[in-house]
Design a protein that fits this description.
This protein is of the alpha/beta class. It folds into 2 domains: 93 residues, Rossmann fold (3-Layer(aba) Sandwich); 148 residues, Muramoyl-pentapeptide Carboxypeptidase, domain 2 (2-Layer Sandwich), CATH 3.30.1380. 54% of the residues lie in helices and 15% in strands. It contains 10 helices and 7 strands. A 4-stranded antiparallel β-sheet has the order 4-5-7-6, with helices on one face. The chain has a 3-stranded parallel β-sheet with strand order 1-2-3, with helices on both faces. Helix 3 links the parallel strand 1 and strand 2. Helix 3 runs parallel beside helix 4 and helix 8 crosses helix 10.
Length: 268
């Protein structure tokens, strides 16, 4: 009866998956990875506290919000829920408005949490790539013969683009960019740059303008090879999209210009 009541409250806004005991709940959570979990304290085989504790100990599920739904109202019962890792409590009989309000609040907090994690991962990616490219690669290139430098540069470009896609769940975040210019900007901006499509000439050509260098303005001026990496990233994105285009470098901050300006022209 409790399951059906909650389902009636929620099914207009959410897909509801039900379980009748703690073991079944853990199994379904791992299969479905829901956005939020409502746990009754009194369940057969494994109670809600035990189920919640296992969920919060598992790295895959520890950040899924858990609301304990209980007829118990004693202080010790609430302490047990807090110790198990519960995020919220509702006392039976459950009020529909209160239930929906608590769920909406927890889902907003969850979204903010994952937004912060994504931003943290992005900053770590930028720092990691910049460290390798600005501190290690330029001295290495000075010691290599010319025929090997191009090989190293291509490997560096592959590393940068693959790292961005791996860190950013690219199939989800980048698939919606139909215009190759927007995609080029989105990819290089993951490194901390500020590129945008500056102008489109009748669909035949367009320019990409960057007011913030992805490698750092001073680093780019000390190591002009880093500007070659920016061009290479754009070239790699173009190849990924099966576009036939030519890239011309018009201005770069590495050469002392105020901005970076790349012209992309269709060859067909």
């Amino acid at each position: 009866m409790n399951i059906e009541l909650l389902r009636a409250y929620l099914e207009d806004s959410y897909e509801v998956i039900a379980a009748t005991n703690g073991h079944e709940a853990l199994k379904k959570v791992n299969e479905e990875m829901p956005d939020i979990i409502l746990l009754d304290v009194m369940m057969p085989e494994m109670n809600g506290y035990q189920a919640c504790e296992q969920l919060k100990q598992d790295p895959r599920t520890q950040f899924i919000p858990v609301i304990m739904v209980t007829a118990l109202s004693g202080r010790n019962d609430w302490i047990s829920g807090i110790e198990a890792g519960a995020d919220e409590f509702l006392t039976k009989p459950v009020n529909k408005l209160e239930l929906l309000t608590r769920i909406n609040s927890l889902l907003r907090l969850k979204t903010l949490h994952f937004d912060l994690l994504a931003e943290k991962n992005k900053l770590e990616l930028q720092n990691r790539i910049r460290s390798v490219l600005t501190q290690i690669i330029p001295p290495l290139l000075k010691t290599l013969p010319p025929e090997q430098k191009n090989i190293v540069i291509h490997q560096m470009i592959d590393m940068v683009v693959e790292s961005i896609f791996e860190c950013s769940s690219a199939e989800d975040n980048f698939a919606g960019y139909e215009f190759v210019g927007d995609l080029c900007c989105q990819i290089i901006n993951q490194l901390g740059a500020n590129f945008e499509v500056d102008g489109v000439n009748g669909g035949k050509s367009f320019t990409l303008k960057g007011s913030i260098c992805p490698w750092g303005k001073d680093e780019a001026r000390s190591n002009p090879i880093l500007c070659t990496l920016s061009r290479g990233i754009f070239s790699r994105v173009i190849n990924m999209r099966d576009e036939d285009m030519e890239i011309n470098v018009l201005e770069t901050m590495g050469n002392g210009d105020k901005c970076c300006l790349f012209e992309l022209t269709r060859l067909d």
